[in-house]
């Protein structure tokens, strides 16, 4: 699926018109049309604004990840935390102000949501390390 198609699908899913998106981004509405037709692509700064507007990630917009990938990762992380209490303890002991480069900024999330994201990242890294060791 192309970037333009993803942008169009997300706009429609959010029940927005091209004009409404253009107004929120302070750009001309023909630009939205050209993005959705894959004539032009938004720059990095605008991709970030679009991700915030559509409550997703730039990686999702660019097709690098799907929302189901994120969901599966969170489920896997929760399972790993149940199996290994040390991971949960590490998450609780860490400084909550470090590494807050989340989707749209950490100020949009509760401490509990940030903790879940942090634990998910740790669990994903731990799972990757275990998989590497098994390959060796």
From TrEMBL:
<keyword id="KW-0238">DNA-binding</keyword>
<dbReference type="InterPro" id="IPR010982">
    <property type="entry name" value="Lambda_DNA-bd_dom_sf"/>
</dbReference>
<dbReference type="Pfam" id="PF01381">
    <property type="entry name" value="HTH_3"/>
</dbReference>
<protein>
    <submittedName>
        <fullName>XRE family transcriptional regulator</fullName>
    </submittedName>
</protein>
<feature type="domain" description="HTH cro/C1-type">
    <location>
        <begin position="7"/>
        <end position="61"/>
    </location>
</feature>
<dbReference type="InterPro" id="IPR001387">
    <property type="entry name" value="Cro/C1-type_HTH"/>
</dbReference>
<dbReference type="GO" id="GO:0003677">
    <property type="term" value="F:DNA binding"/>
</dbReference>
């Amino acid at each position: 699926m192309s970037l333009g198609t993803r942008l169009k699908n997300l706009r429609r899913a959010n029940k927005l018109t091209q004009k409404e998106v253009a107004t929120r981004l302070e750009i001309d509405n023909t630009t939205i049309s050209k993005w959705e037709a894959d004539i032009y692509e938004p720059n990095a700064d605008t991709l970030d604004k679009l991700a915030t507007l559509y409550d997703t990630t730039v990686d999702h917009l660019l097709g690098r990840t799907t929302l189901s990938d994120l969901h599966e990762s969170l489920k896997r992380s929760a399972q790993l935390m149940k199996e290994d209490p040390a991971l949960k303890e590490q998450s609780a002991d860490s400084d909550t102000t470090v590494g807050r480069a989340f989707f749209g900024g950490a100020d949009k999330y509760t401490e509990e949501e940030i903790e879940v994201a942090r634990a998910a990242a740790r669990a994903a890294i731990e799972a990757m390390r275990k998989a590497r060791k098994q390959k060796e």
